[in-house]
Design brief:
Number of domains: 1
Helix content: 40-55%
CATH topology: Rossmann fold
Distance between the termini: 8 Å
CATH architecture: 3-Layer(aba) Sandwich
Bound molecules: flavin mononucleotide
Radius of gyration: 16 Å
Number of strands: 6
Largest sheet: 6 strands, parallel
């Protein structure tokens, strides 16, 4: 299975990236998994211009790093959307990628494109925040559910961790690291995803 990790934090090796790497270790522990990381902060991806071009052609008119990412998004068996919580939502880096997936939404809902079988592919939110509020992840979960629908993939189990600050907080919490590792192993063995 090919696993694509879309990294939305500007902080290299911060908490959400540590989550991603530890989940990937869990996937590897179950074998037969390849992993690819995309660090969005290093790419040039322009925000959606709402021009409507994709409603007619199914393709975005903007030629930037997103062009490659559409292909990688299509090719992955599992996609992990990795982001810190910023103001009760996703980071701008990952939201920009998501908005550009409007081209995928257009293909599915306006142009009737047929996709690979939905239940064989899944998307998972990996997110963390500094505080402990009950509803910290609600907005991001809704966005990722909507994105998975547009990409025609199943919305899979998320991994959400509160109380992570500063940048190295997760590296010093062995019990939370175990949680991430176990999550990776569990996702790797979920029946419907094999
Ligand atoms: C612009 C900004 C907004 C943030 N908003 C929230 C928030 O609404 N709630 C919260 O609990 N933490 C918030 N945080 C804290 C981050 O979610 C937290 O530090 C997280 O561990 C960062 O993950 P990273 O190391 O992967 O970047 C915010 C941080 C920044 C920089």
């Amino acid at each position: 299975m090919h696993n694509l990790f879309i990294l939305g934090s500007p902080r290299k090796n911060g908490n959400s990236e540590t989550m991603a790497q530890t989940v990937a270790d869990g996937l590897f522990a179950k074998g037969n998994n390849t992993v690819e990381y995309i660090r969005l902060n290093h790419l040039s991806i322009k925000p959606c211009q709402g021009c409507g071009g994709c409603s007619e052609s199914g393709h975005c008119i903007i030629d930037d790093h997103m062009t490659d990412l559409y292909e990688k998004t299509d090719a992955a068996d599992r996609i992990f959307f990795v982001s810190p919580i910023y103001f009760y939502g996703l980071s701008a880096q990952i939201k920009t990628y998501i908005d550009r997936c409007q081209a995928k939404w257009s293909r599915k809902y306006l142009l009737g494109e047929k996709y690979r079988e939905k239940d064989k592919r899944s998307g998972h939110l990996l997110s963390c925040a500094a505080t402990s509020g009950d509803r910290l992840f609600d907005g991001s979960i809704l966005v990722i559910k909507c994105l998975c629908d547009a990409l025609n993939i199943s919305y899979g189990e998320p991994l959400l961790i509160r109380n992570l600050e500063p940048r190295t907080a997760l590296q010093n919490k062995p019990e939370k690291l175990s949680l991430c590792h176990d999550f990776g192993k569990k996702i790797a063995t979920d029946q419907h995803q094999i």
